[in-house]
Write a structure and sequence with these properties.
Blueprint lengths: L5 E3 L2 E3 L3 E3 L16 H10 L5 E8 L16 H16 L3 E7 L17 E2 L8 E3 L5 E3 L4 E2 L2 H20 L4 E5 L5 H6 L14 H19 L4 E5 L14 H11 L6 E5 L18 H5 L7 E4 L4 H10 L4 E4 L1 H5 L3 H7 L33
Parallel strand pairs: 3-14, 4-5, 5-10, 6-9, 10-11, 11-12, 12-13, 13-14
Antiparallel strand pairs: 1-2, 7-8
Helix pairs in contact: 1-2, 3-5, 5-6
Length: about 375
């Protein structure tokens, strides 16, 4: 079933092998602009009628928490992304922009004027995060957003969707997963607000719903996806029982006619390491009853387990991450059962073309290491 066509809202796919959003930290500086290497990288991974979800792309200067991650809030960034989408479309592929704000998962060194990162509440994340140098440091306590600032951030997502259209993207995906700002609003552990965006399940889900509605106004609901990690623990998330708020959110958004729901399976913790619990519950199975529309599952899939997810009806398409990093022609390889290149974790983040655009394609005769 991986190579049967599928309709995701307005997006008609020739196969169900989706390239997952992959942060690679190689945007050109200054300006966090997708450059020549990004054009080559995405063009290599485009396949006729296949879908790419772009790397997470900040919609506002306060949304950055990692070095050399691209934005979608300046003209120069839009122009850079236009060159990327042109390269994908030249291969008859489709690409959607993943809209991102990290919230508290940042450092003042990334913030305008060196200010504290923003979050639903002033609760510091455990662990360490990146500095602009690529080194790491403990997270600092964020500043709680004023309620009027929340509406301005929703507007920033709306502007990000407008810029995505200007850059030639075929749609947008709202990044609501992995402990970033929208996810922070959903959790009691990170959202202690006493206003319309905190407290009850309905209030904690409001920010994500507002964002989805705002971007749908711009691009059309049938070109909007939402990515969630309801059973994951990345970036100090997953502290309490989140399932009720996620169920409410999914049920509410199921009426919106979105292109797809994109769920990260708990096999992956959001930063690329396999979870040790092979018997972890399946997010797709847990939320399929509440989501009648197209569903993309992601997180540690192989060709065989992807086929199983499709055959069971848990998912309508499967997103691959690390395998796409190392195999720019992944759909073609999976279609013929070709061997796969191994990936090199040491080149996942930052750096140059090595481990980015230099993985070989398979021509049917070469030996793959």
């Amino acid at each position: 079933m991986l190579f049967a066509p599928v309709q995701l809202g307005r997006l008609q796919l020739n196969h169900r092998v989706v390239m997952a959003p992959l942060t690679r930290m190689r945007a050109e500086q200054p300006g966090n602009v997708p450059g020549r290497l990004a054009v080559e990288y995405y063009g290599q991974r485009a396949s006729a009628g296949g879908l790419i979800v772009s790397e997470a792309t900040q919609i506002h200067p306060t949304g950055q928490g990692y070095p050399a991650t691209p934005g979608l809030h300046t003209g120069e960034q839009v122009d850079g992304w236009r060159r990327v989408t042109d390269a994908v479309h030249a291969e008859r592929g489709l690409i959607v922009a993943q809209l991102w704000h990290v919230g508290r998962i940042s450092n003042p060194a990334f913030q305008p004027g060196g200010a504290a990162p923003v979050a639903p509440s002033a609760i510091r994340a455990a662990g360490k995060g990146f500095l602009p140098s690529g080194e790491t440091a403990p997270y600092e306590t964020p500043r709680a957003l004023e309620i009027e600032e929340i509406s301005r951030l929703v507007d920033a997502y709306r502007d990000g969707a407008k810029n995505a259209l200007a850059a030639g993207f075929d749609g947008v995906e709202v990044h609501g997963a992995n402990g970033y700002l929208p996810h922070q609003f959903l959790q009691r552990a990170t959202n202690r607000r006493a206003d319309a965006y905190g407290g009850s399940i309905e209030n904690r889900a409001r920010f994500v719903i507002d964002i989805v509605d705002a971007v749908a106004e711009v691009v059309g609901a049938d070109r909007v996806g939402l990515r969630l990690s309801p059973l994951g623990k990345a970036n100090d998330s997953g502290h309490d029982d989140e399932l009720p708020v996620f169920r409410h959110l999914v049920i509410e958004l199921a009426t919106r006619g979105l292109a797809y729901l994109h769920l990260i399976e708990p096999r992956a913790d959001g930063v690329g390491r396999d979870a040790s619990d092979a018997g972890a519950p399946t997010a797709a199975a847990a939320f399929r009853p509440y989501w009648p529309g197209p569903l993309i599952a992601a997180g540690g899939f192989t060709a065989d387990t992807a086929e199983d997810a499709l055959a069971s009806g848990e998912a309508d398409a499967v997103a691959f991450g690390r395998l796409f990093i190392a195999n720019p022609d992944l759909p073609a390889r999976l279609a013929i059962g070709a061997p796969l290149n191994p990936y090199d974790r040491s080149t996942f983040y930052l750096g140059d073309h090595r481990g980015y655009t230099d993985y070989p394609t398979f021509n049917g005769t070469e030996k793959i290491a």
